[in-house]
């Protein structure tokens, strides 16, 4: 695997990008801005074309105007260099397509030959399906039957989550896709894997002499992963009510982060070796054996009406397109274990929720204290060392260690050392989608999820979903704007731990000044 810094500008191979769902939200908010940023940084040379595909009629000019608007609103670069926007826009064309009709795909194949010739593209084709998952199969079949996969270059399929609803539906979907594409041609997006600081977990772990030797159950007391959001379900009530936090965040983003923290060092920095290690980590997750076990280790919450910053927030059941009796979870917390030599006995506490007080993603590694019979531990209430990885919106790392209080004899205080990446002037972190599109165009699959990872994550998650189906009483309500059901704290207290404050939590100062409660 090669690490590409944000200043590297090795252009991806020339290709036509087929963007299904080109008039949708994802394209507007993420994909057009990502393509423009890549262009601006020289990662897309002039030998590319983008075909926007959707049902509604649109001219190329209208399509380009939409893209211009999206870049103005969402891109980290401005389209203000003389002539650059016009050059970029000239690579975009639009075609109205009924994805159920193979004739449209035949026409697309004809158009593709022209585009290859016009932009000097060697027949490489990247199909990006920003579509509902039930359309992945039919579109793949029509790509094949319409002659779209017969060019001389490579074909790659990029798809968004959710990949299925459970293991069974995921298997069916995979079986459909694999009739058309080989596993190595399928790029399953989990946009968390495109985040700089998630990718940094690997670098931190495997390139620092003072982390990896301690990265095990001898020295780590527990791991806490928090993915908290302030937003509710917004206009996605219809989708979310069928999905819930377990399927929307845990099966994918949370499991992927956990795998990155827990995996063994890969033998080579090669995508398959890295993904092999992630699968092994997911396989060692201890499955919940019964509904009772799920209940004892998993908390399932839903926000009720609440308040934030003086504003009243509606309860989940009052949100648009949500069943007023819904028992869908908007909050999930769990204590999980990995049964392998490295992690035996170390609890991983994971939590995610909507309508929590802050938007943040953080990983806290809490180290074990020095032995009790050591002089310093006897005399002082020592706070544990922490390594905190801030994923977003703040990006950085800090460590908390114990040091002597200056000028005072015999007083030990926790101090923190911080590297704040997002505070550094001149760092304009690429959006996850830039990295992912760029990687897919280069055939770099490390940060995409392989089928066996997806299946493994589903089999873990399915047991929880099953237990919840049996036991509807486990749903707990929390006021919107609060930190979720109170039982979440008990989960850690049972083991003698507590959640460390995440960035933006009021008690944050406690860490910096006095080291927080023991
Ligand atoms: C998506 C989920 O995958 O991730 C959303 O479907 C969630 O519900 C989003 O809001 C969070 O992503 P990020 O990058 O804003 O943390």
From TrEMBL:
GO cellular component, one term: cytosol
UniProt pathway: Carbohydrate degradation; pentose phosphate pathway; D-ribulose 5-phosphate from D-glucose 6-phosphate (oxidative stage): step 1/3
Residues reported to bind substrate: 191, 195, 229, 248, 354, 359
Transmembrane segments: none
SUPFAM superfamilies, per the entry: Glyceraldehyde-3-phosphate dehydrogenase-like, C-terminal domain (SSF55347), NAD(P)-binding Rossmann-fold domains (SSF51735)
Annotated Glucose-6-phosphate dehydrogenase C-terminal domain residues: 203-500
Enzyme Commission numbers on file: 1.1.1.49
Keyword line: Carbohydrate metabolism, Glucose metabolism, NADP, Oxidoreductase
Coiled-coil positions: none
GO function terms (MF aspect): glucose-6-phosphate dehydrogenase activity; NADP binding
Broad enzyme group: oxidoreductase
GO process terms (BP): glucose metabolic process; pentose-phosphate shunt, oxidative branch
Described function: Catalyzes the oxidation of glucose 6-phosphate to 6-phosphogluconolactone.
HAMAP family to which the protein is assigned, alphabetical: G6PD
PANTHER family: GLUCOSE-6-PHOSPHATE 1-DEHYDROGENASE, GLUCOSE-6-PHOSPHATE 1-DEHYDROGENASE G6PD
Protein name: Glucose-6-phosphate 1-dehydrogenase
Organism: Paenibacillus sacheonensis
């Amino acid at each position: 695997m090669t690490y590409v810094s944000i200043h590297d500008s090795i252009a991806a191979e020339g290709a036509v990008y087929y963007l299904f769902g080109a008039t949708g939200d994802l394209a507007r908010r993420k994909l057009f801005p990502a393509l423009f940023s890549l262009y601006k940084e020289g990662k897309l040379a002039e030998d590319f074309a983008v075909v926007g595909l959707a049902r509604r009629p649109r001219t190329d000019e209208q399509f380009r105007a939409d893209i211009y608007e999206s870049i103005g609103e969402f891109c980290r670069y401005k389209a203000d260099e003389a002539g650059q926007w016009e050059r970029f826009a000239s690579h975009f064309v639009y075609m109205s397509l009924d994805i159920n009709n193979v004739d449209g795909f035949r026409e697309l194949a004809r158009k593709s030959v022209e585009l290859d010739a016009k932009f000097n593209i060697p027949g490489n084709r990247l199909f990006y399906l920003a579509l509902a998952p039930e359309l992945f199969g039919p579109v793949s079949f029509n790509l094949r039957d319409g002659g779209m996969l017969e060019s001389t270059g490579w074909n790659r399929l990029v798809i968004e989550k959710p990949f299925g609803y459970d293991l069974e539906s995921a298997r069916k979907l995979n079986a459909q896709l694999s009739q058309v594409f080989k596993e190595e041609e399928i790029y399953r997006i989990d946009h968390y894997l495109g985040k700089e600081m998630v990718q940094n977990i690997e670098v931190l772990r495997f390139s620092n002499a003072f982390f990896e030797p301690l990265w095990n159950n001898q020295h780590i007391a527990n791991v806490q992963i928090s993915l908290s959001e302030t937003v509710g379900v917004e206009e996605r009530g219809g989708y979310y009510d069928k999905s819930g936090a377990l399927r929307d965040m845990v099966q994918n983003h949370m499991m992927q982060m956990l795998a990155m923290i827990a995996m063994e060092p890969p033998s080579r920095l090669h995508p398959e070796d890295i993904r092999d290690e992630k699968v092994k980590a997911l396989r060692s997750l201890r499955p919940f054996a019964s509904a009772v076990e799920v209940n004892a280790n998993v908390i399932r919450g839903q926000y009720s009406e609440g308040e934030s910053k003086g504003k009243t927030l509606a309860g989940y059941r009052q949100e648009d397109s949500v069943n007023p009796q819904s028992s869908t979870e908007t909050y999930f917390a769990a204590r999980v274990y990995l049964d392998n030599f490295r992690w035996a006995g170390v609890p991983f506490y994971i939590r995610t929720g909507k309508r929590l007080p802050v938007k943040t993603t953080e990983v806290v590694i809490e180290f074990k204290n020095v032995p009790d019979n050591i002089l310093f531990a006897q005399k002082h209430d020592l706070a544990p060392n922490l390594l905190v990885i801030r994923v977003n919106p703040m990006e950085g790392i800090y460590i908390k260690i114990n040091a002597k209080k200056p000028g005072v004899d015999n007083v030990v205080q926790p101090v923190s050392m911080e590297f704040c990446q997002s505070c550094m002037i001149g760092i304009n972190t690429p959006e996850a989608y830039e990295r992912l599109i760029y990687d897919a165009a280069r055939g770099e699959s490390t940060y995409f999820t392989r089928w066996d990872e997806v299946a493994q994550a589903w089999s873990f998650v399915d047991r929880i979903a099953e237990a919840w189906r049996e036991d509807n009483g486990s749903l707990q309500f929390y006021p919107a704007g609060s930190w979720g059901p109170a039982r979440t704290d008990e989960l850690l207290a049972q083991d003698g731990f507590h959640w460390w404050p995440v960035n933006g939590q009021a008690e944050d100062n406690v860490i910096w000044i006095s080291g927080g409660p023991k």
